[in-house]
Amino acid sequence: MNSLKRLAEDIEESKQYGGHVIRSHRRPPTGNMRKAAAASMLIAALALTLAPVAGTPVLRQAVDASVVDAEPLEVVDPATTTTIEIEHIKEQITRSRRAAVAAPTLAPAVVRVIKPTWVHPLASGKQGNSCYRTSKRPSHGGVDLAQPAGTPIRSVAAGIIYRKAYESDGAGYYVTVRHDGNVFSQYHHLRAHSPLGVGARVSVGQTIGYVGRTGNATGNHLHFEIRTGSVGNRVNPAPFMRARGINIGC
Ligand SMILES: [Zn+2]
Fold it and tell me: pTM for the whole thing?
């Protein structure tokens, strides 16, 4: 209401200079200024209801305060303002109100990246082509997933590198990762030693080695094992992973 009071003073003062009130206009509206516009339109609407014709300059000031249109100069002559102008001002208020409604303030977007706890050991999601302890291979302690040589192998969960070794007649280059809850995942036939050192922390999905065919392997593939409770206790990795939302086939 201070601005209205100030306008009244301006009008009084303007009478000494032939009744003209000259105001330089404000900058064009920005997104934030539309909020101010909406607030001042309320004042404008109130003024429309209450003001008689003699109050027209007050209405004009209210529109001006809404900072919706950007005119370089605004001249208000209280002596010559007519009801036609009041209609024009009403129109302006309506347009301003529509503009304010059409430009809602958007809440800042909150983007949260949620990492899965468990992932497939291969980005391809390859399904097992030889399963755990089948009748044909009763001593097979893992699931085989054929992949081209050099395919990155991912740690299926966060953990630490528990061991890495080489067995010429069995696993070839292999790496074991220890996870929370005494769970171990083991990856065989790597092309070479895991690039990570024993004790290194790994995040879920982190590359811990590359597919190869070292040791006892007839072709490039990942032999994937899960051990629970202790590192020597193999379990069928297929249902173990399925229970964690990961399908490795078998
Ligand atoms: Zn195997």
Answer: 0.57
